[in-house]
Structures are given as structure tokens and as C-alpha cells.
TrEMBL record:
<keyword id="KW-0808">Transferase</keyword>
<feature type="active site">
    <location>
        <position position="243"/>
    </location>
</feature>
<feature type="active site">
    <location>
        <position position="195"/>
    </location>
</feature>
<dbReference type="InterPro" id="IPR033195">
    <property type="entry name" value="AmidinoTrfase"/>
</dbReference>
<protein>
    <submittedName>
        <fullName>Glycine amidinotransferase</fullName>
        <ecNumber>2.1.4.1</ecNumber>
    </submittedName>
</protein>
<dbReference type="GO" id="GO:0015068">
    <property type="term" value="F:glycine amidinotransferase activity"/>
</dbReference>
<dbReference type="GO" id="GO:0006601">
    <property type="term" value="P:creatine biosynthetic process"/>
</dbReference>
<feature type="active site" description="Amidino-cysteine intermediate">
    <location>
        <position position="351"/>
    </location>
</feature>
<comment type="similarity">
    <text>Belongs to the amidinotransferase family.</text>
</comment>
Amino acid sequence: MRVNSWNGWDPLTHVIVGRADGTMVQAPEPTVVRDWPDDGFPAGAYGPLPDDMVQAANAQLDAFADLLRSRGIRVDRPDVIDFGRPVSTPDWEQGSMFGCMPPRDVLVTVGSEILEATMSYRSRWFEYLCYRPLLDSYFRDDPDMRWEAAPKPRLTDDAYKPGFWPEYEALGFDEQIARVRENDLALTEIEPLFDAADIARCGKDLFVQLSMVTNRSGVDWLRRHFPEHRVHPVTFGNTHPVHIDATWVPLRPGLVLHCGEREAEEDLVQYFKINDWEIVSAARPAKTWDELPKLCFCSPWLSMNVLSLSPDTVCVEAGETAQMELLDSLGFEVVPVPFWDVAPFGGGLHCSTVDIHREGELQDYFPKRYGRF
């Protein structure tokens, strides 16, 4: 047993895969309002996802776990808790939790350290409990593992912009993008907040997306926590940024997959190019917005939420034929994995996993500086 992962492409040997059991359409909270009246969840309503959807998602998750095991990869699964129960702290009460399908949101592995993120939704404040038994076993079995947890946020009302969504949705596209670039979004800066899935790991460089769930204070905390790394806050031309792994996906040294509809900052582009990285635009998704599964809060660009098993092998959602053809043309062995039934439970192939061990050591893939990087 050894915890070790410095990037998202070294050969994968040990991983956590999430579960769909008990997942909730979560109760409303300051920056989360689900509104699916045609599917039984009008604004303000909440409750468990339908049993048939849970069964379909678990079938795909289980098949994915078996596929990884067939390739010699150790697979662990989280504990399911009662996500339907109300939760509270001295500062707030919340009508439900969420689920444990996307462990990538909660945990990030950097070298021999596994870090629990703050999380910025009250419904996800206690989600770390699903992974504590696994983390405890890793800590006991690996004497070199570092087990860290970012400061649990208070998530008082002061952590959120009052009335954010109605005001923001009334803005035009250019105004929304300007707000994204300034990170003038749903969160205030009263305390550090970040989701682990907003971090793209490239050896000594950590690229952290400023988003609806990650603020500048969160990036500052990460910079201080990882003083031996270069921690870069980044934004994209995405009006509703939530997690970087459907926008900017490093696939191997020298190659990053980019959602071309979400323009990257020029300094970020040049930082990669000056260090001899190729930036490839992802293929268009097979699904349109109207074709997404019901109760899905992800975008069609979940199509590029891929999981690399090695620098030359990548798992892709089985229906995303254009994406598979693109990656095949780039020299990858492409492993098709049916996974769209999992999307309503919080994401895609990358979201559903957390690397525990990848072969390889810390490397500097960006020896040349550019602009603010």
C-alpha cells in the first residue's frame, strides 16, 4: 500500500470509484436551487433520485470498476451514509446531503498526501465521512502517507452573495464572462473555499479554476499549503464554471485537451506553448443540452471528462465517438466505457474516481515562465 500521484496520466494502479446509492436532489441552499418540474422536482422540492436511475448508474459504475480491476488496478469504494437526513452545524441547517458518486470533488492526491477539500455547498459539508474509513486504512498501511483536511468552512450566509442567481442570470454573455474573469461569482472571500475537482495536477504546477465553488481565498490557502508547488488561479470563458475537468484536461506530458467553447486566458495558453505543450480542442459532444439525462446538472461537455490509465491509454464515455476518434488520432489506446447513466449523480469518468496511486515521481513540466505564471 502506497499513496502516490503527482499528475493525471502516470500509470494508474489504485483508485477509488464512487457509488450512486442514496444520491439526493439536494434541498435548496444559498447557491443551489434545482428546478426540474417535468421530472417531479420543481424548485424547492428535493428527495432521492428514482430507484431505476440509481440501479442504472450503479450498473455502469460497477462495470467500470470491474474493467479497471481487469487491467490490474486496485479499486476501492466509499461508504454510503444516509444522504436524505437533515444536517446542521451551529451556523446553519440543511434539509439534505447529496451523495458519494463523485469522490474527485472531495479528495485530491498530491504526491503522498491526500487532501480533503473544504467544499462550498452545505449539502456536501459532511461528504468526507464517506471516505474516512478508506483514508484511515491507507494511513495505517502506508507509513509515508500524509492525511490532510483543509479547514472546514463555516458556510454562514456571509459566504455567499445574496440574491446572486437572479442578478447573474439577467446579465448578458459578455457581462457574465467579465464576472467569471474577476471571480465575482456566487462566493464571497470571507473564508477559503474550494472543491478538489477544480485542481488540475501537472507535477510541480497545480492549476486551480476560480469558479462557482472555488474562490481566491481557497487558491491562496492551497498556495500556502503546497509551498513547493506553483499554484495558479485560472479562468475560462465559461459562464457557469464548476470544476476544471470538463474544460482543461492534461492527458500526458506535452498535451492538454481543451473545451474550445470556453476560451482560456492568453497567459495560460502561452505558458503551455512556451513549454512545448500542444493544446488540442476537444471534439464536440455527442449529446445536446436537450439530450442530457433527466435530473442532470452537468453540461454536454462531460464528454471530455476522461480518465487516463497511462500516458497512452484513456477511458472515454462509449457514446462519444468523435472524442474517441480524436484521441485515437493522437496515439491513445481508447477504452470505451458506457457512463451517461451516471451523469445525474454528479459527473463523468474522471469525476467518479480519485487516484490513490500512480507510478511515477514529481517532475517539472513547465521550466519556463510566462506572464503571471
